[in-house]
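FW: tagging you since you asked about this chain on Friday. Here's the raw sequence from the shared folder, copied in full. Didn't touch anything.
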Amino acid sequence: MELWGRMLWALLSGPGRGGSTLGWAFSSWQPQPPLAGLSSATELVSHWTRVFEKRGIPEARESSEYIVAHVLGAKTFQSLRPALWTQPLTSQQLQCIRELSSRRLQRMPVQYILGEWDFQGLSLRMVPPVFIPRPETEELVEWVLEEVAQRSYAVGSPGSPLILEVGCGSGAISLSLLSQLPQSRVIAVDKGEAAISLTHENAQRLQLQDRIWIIHLDMTSERSWTHLPWGPVDLVISNPPYIFHQDMEQLAPEIRSYEDPAALDGGEEGMDIITHILALAPRLLKDSGSIFLEVDPRHPELVSSWLQSRPELYLNLVAVRKDFCGRSRFLHIQRSRP
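HL: got it, structure written out here
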């Protein structure tokens, strides 16, 4: 995704990560007749832009363009054939635009309204309350791909690692890696049943189900890890819950009202799941195996201190990478031989 698209995503869905109690029922909205006098895509975009602006909806024009384009069968308004911009819409199309726009007025993220979103060139199904993959996470995937290209694995050639993703959500990370590493295999775990179901659906849609094991698992449960049917992995990758608990209420309504807070709230210092992953690393990783994490910009220093106080884990923070906004966002931690 290009930089402008990444910034647009952040504005459409609210800053960072977050969530609270779910609020995605639409019982208060009742269908109404199509808007009189509005018949073309361009007119509909202008109308709903004004409505969204009046109601304080972020990125009003982009929201209306995505909705109108979706109803007309395109991903973006700009990708529509110019003839469709002024062609009259059917009454059914007008009604559908009204319904979807009413959801945006309730601050539902565009990704959930459309029911799909692109990640690393893959079209993924999106349903609430499963965490929506952020543009920053595409950079995490790109970094992992760079590292994999520089290594050889036991299977015999570069690009064939065994990967464990902790907290798979929609399957965005796992499936994008599988699609770009044809010899790789992935184990994807999540404690949310909705996430597991959605990852299964996306794997089937992309025909990647043969190389992924999707397991319903709470990674904080010690007993769960002791009964899993695999040996050590080459890579552990995670975009874990990392929001500091006190920051949760400051997040945008799109995030607070629709996304699962369990996928977002990382505890007092945002480190609860991060430290679980690191503590389990000697059991999960092969010698010289790596962990790649997406974190809060305050976490590199906290993680470094935590690792230094636990030399028995034989883990080293070998690199920190910034995201497209210049914030320290990604960590590469490597296991050394005891």
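FW: The CA atoms of residues 196 and 216 lie 6 Å apart.
HL: agreed, and The chain is about 40% helix and 15% strand.
FW: great, closing this out.
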